[in-house]
Amino acid sequence: MNNFLSINDGSKNSTSDMVKVALFAGIIFVLGTTPFGFIPLGAFKIVMIHIPVIIGSIVLGPKNGAFLGFMFGLTSFISAHLQPVVTSYFFSPIISGNLFSLIVCFVPRILVGIIPYYVFKFFKKYININIALIISGLIGSLTNTVLVLGFIYIFFAEKYAQILNTTLDNLLAVIFASVGLNALLEALASAILVLTICKALFKILKSVK
Q1: Chain centre to alpha carbon of residue 61
Q2: Per-residue pLDDT for 66 more than 70?
Q3: CATH says 11-207 is which class?
Q4: HEC profile for the chain?
Q5: CA-to-CA distance for 105 and 91, rounded, in angstroms?
C-alpha cells in the first residue's frame, strides 16, 4: 500500500494533504506540551509522543514524517523547560550551554518520522501487513530510544554518569538497567497503537478516495 500523501496530484489533494499533516502536527504539539506525551517516571519520562510521528510516517510518507519528527523535537525542547527533569539538560542548549543538545533533541525525532515508512514499505512486500505494521512500530520506537541514549552517551557521558550516580566504566550497564523497562513499554505501546490506528486510517482513507 502506498503512502497516502500525494502532493503533486493537484491543488485539491494538496490542500487535503496539508490538512492531514496539520492535524498530525496538532496532535503532536498537544501531546508534547501536556503530561500525556511525556509521562514522568522518576527521573525519566515514558515518551508517547513518538507514536503519532510513526503513524504519520507510514501514512503520510517520509518527507512529511520528517516534518512531524521535527515537531516532536520542538515539543521535546519546549517540554525540557515547561516540565523539567534532570535529563532536560540533554535536550536544551539553553540549559546545558552545549549545542550538541540540539542533535540529541532533534535528530532522533526526525529519523522517527522517516525510518518507519521504509521499514513498512520493505516488510509489507514479504509478510502480512499487520506484522509489517507491528515491526514498524517497534523499530520506530527503538529508533528514538537508541539514538537519544546513544547521542547522550557520545556527547554527555560524564554528565549522564553524574545524574545516574555511577562511573563512566559502568555507565552503559546502568543505562540499560535504568531505561530498559521504559524502552520496552514504549516499544510495545507503539507496536499496538501503530497497528490499530494505521489499519483504521487505511480503511478510512481508502473509503474516501
Answers
A1: 15
A2: yes
A3: mainly alpha
A4: CCCCCCCCCCHHHHHHHHHHHHHHHHHHHHHHCCCCCEEEECCEEEECCHHHHHHHHHHHCHHHHHHHHHHHHHHHHHHHHHCCCHHHHHHCHHHHCCCHHHHHHHHHHHHHCCHHHHHHHHHCCCCCHHHHHHHHHHHHHHHHHHHHHHHHHHHHHHHHHHHCCCCCCCHHHHHHHHHHHHHHHHHHHHHHHHHHHHHHHHHHHHHCC
A5: 5
Which of 87, 116, 119 is CA-nearest to residue 104?
A: 87
Give residue-wise pLDDT tens across range 6-64: 434 444 557 777 888 888 988 888 887 776 666 665 555 667 889 999 999 999 999 99
- Any idea where the domains of the chain sit in the sequence? 11-207
| Environment class of 46 (CB within 10 Å of its CB; exposed 0-12, middle 13-18, buried 19+) | middle
Who's near 110: CB < 8 A, 6+ residues apart? 66, 69, 70, 72, 73
Q: Which residues contact 67 (CB under 8 A, 6 or more apart)?
A: 21, 25, 113
